[in-house]
Amino acid sequence: MNNLNKKISKDSKYITLILDMQWKIICGNKKALSVLKYTKEELLSMTVFNLISSDEKRAVINQLKNFNSEEFHFNTFYCTKDSLKFPVEVSFIPMELNSNKIILNLIRDITLELQREEEIETLASIVEYSEDAILSKDLNDIITSWNKGAEKLYGYKKDEIIGTHISKLIPDETIGDVEIILDKTKKGIEIYHHETTRLTKSGKKILVSICISPIYNREKKIIGASAIARDISDKKSKEKQLKEKYEELSAIYEELASTEEELRSNYIELEKAKIEAENANIAKANFLANMSHEIRTPLNGIIGTIDLISLMEIRECTRPYLEILRNSSTHLLDITNNILDISKIESGKIELHMKVFDLKNMLDTFIREISYACSNKNIKFTYFIDPLIPSELIGDELKLKQILINLFNNSLKFTKKGHILFKVKKISQVNEKVILEFSIEDTGTGIKEKFKKQIFKRFVYQQVPQNEYYSTTGLGLLISKELVKIMNGDIWFESAENIGSTFSFTAEFLLYFNKAVDSKLMPEDTVPHTLNKNILIVEDNEINMQIACGMLKKLGYNFLSAYNGNQALKILETMSVDLILMDIQMPELNGLETTKIIRKNELHEKCHMPIIAMTAYAMPGDRELCIEGGMDDYISKPFDIYILKNILQRFL
């Protein structure tokens, strides 16, 4: 027994235990004590089954039921005293010692071996599914391996190509490559980015860039070669196009250089043309502003009249024609807005286009699109839509979808595996305003800590490598941030490198109430709250004055009328008013001049009258002009009764 103790104590490769025939531990080497973390006394009080992982114990017991004279070898899991589980290769060997039967239990930790096997499998998977064509061949140029990229590039399946000669892929005019490459392979020479022609299964010739490396066996003897090929047909085509463009531009440059003297002599004429162009731009801007004003003024009368008639008791057969009028006038308004977009783009200003839209329909379409995109990358996609979210809202549907698409594209681009989760929930609802929160969670590469403060800045990719997370997302995230800002929301993110990111944002919308229902409920509901409020309408257009008066009457407010600024000032001298709806362009005294006088008088009275600009001017900067002129807010014509109701409730 002493000799056996000495022998197993010296063996450092195995955890070695000696067991009696009842599986009780009667001896163990030093490695057993150090690895299993038991004292000698503790170890000798145990059976071997106390060391086996609980979820493996039943299987081991069943396997050892018939243990007698044969050796048993298998893999399982052992546990240390502090419950650390590790994989092992075990042997149970029957022996005799001093005429007594014993069991020698040899235990080898195979953690590193399993890790290496897993790494090898991972590398093999990377090679197999690489987009580059990767193949290997022996020293007789017989193809021995073939990945998915090779199938895609050359068109042959594995069972069609493995075992055939490499010449099957080489056209006649470059067949000399075979001997040259084989000779270099045998000499251990590596080949990098060799551009040549190859042949696909369909007979098409393609340009490829290939890299070839010798394959060595364990004895460092060359037994073959591996080749990586990439299709460069498009690249070469683009290079050719660029070369042609360069030559074309060079010719143009020479022509320009030859006429330089002529251009210098015409400098005065060019300066004159520049001034004329600047004047033309100013005239264009003035034309757009005036045209917008002239179109919006009658449109306000049309749309306002349609809204007021819709609230009346009318025949059902009349409603389809009202809807035609509403759609036609809305279409005309859209055309006007499209014309104004030219000026908005030039000025760099972004505005919301508030319209009624069905949020649930929009989300259904968005979810179908991103679900399809995720399935193409084998990424699990899930979503949750708060059932308490109202369906019909007033807001800018296109800008909302633009933000969602920007954030989703980032998640999809940087998520290679795992999942993407999309959630929408209601944060709050006060009166006619509802705030929603949208979030997109992914298991992508995440964002490094040092870059988190720069993620929403412009052009941050100029300072970082192209493979950083946000190297191509700075502009999209910046645009999303600006869009969220004008939707009275906020945007933020949470991210951990190599774990994933969650981008979230809030946005404010208005609730939409069906007008067919409101036509009966609105006057009775609002009158008790508004009878004691007096509103002064200052408007020189008779039709727009009638529309505004009709809307205020429906909403239950008291109102006074003035057709220019002078009349408005006289009314304010004798009447108590709670709010003013002020047109801008009026005879005698316009809206801005009138507001300036009112604000000057308020300095002595120490009070503040809410003044809302009610104008057909809708060019970039018009709203800011009104606010800077002392007004509190701005409504652009045409507007409907619901927009008017919302702004009056906000100030009154």
Describe the model.
- In the N-terminal section; belongs to the phytochrome family.
- It comes from Clostridium kluyveri (strain ATCC 8527 / DSM 555 / NBRC 12016 / NCIMB 10680 / K1).
- This protein has 21 helices and 22 strands.
- It is flat.
- It is of the alpha+beta class and 652 residues long.
- The strands form four sheets. Strands 11, 12, 13, 14, 15, 16 and 17 form a seven-stranded mixed beta sheet that branches.
- Helix 11 packs across helix 17.
- The protein folds into four domains: 108 residues, 2-Layer Sandwich (Beta-Lactamase); 120 residues, PAS domain (Beta-Lactamase, 2-Layer Sandwich); 191 residues, Rossmann fold, CATH 3.40.50; 157 residues, 2-Layer Sandwich (Heat Shock Protein 90), CATH 3.30.565.10.
List the keywords.
Rossmann fold; 4 domains; 24% strand; 46% helix; seven-stranded mixed sheet; 652 residues; five-stranded antiparallel sheet; EC 2.7.13.3; alpha+beta
Outline of this structure?
The protein is α+β, with helices and mostly antiparallel strands and 652 residues long. The strands form four sheets. Strands 11, 12, 13, 14, 15, 16 and 17 form a seven-stranded mixed beta sheet that branches. It has a five-stranded antiparallel beta sheet with strand order 2-1-5-4-3. A five-stranded antiparallel beta sheet has the order 7-6-10-9-8, with helices on both faces.
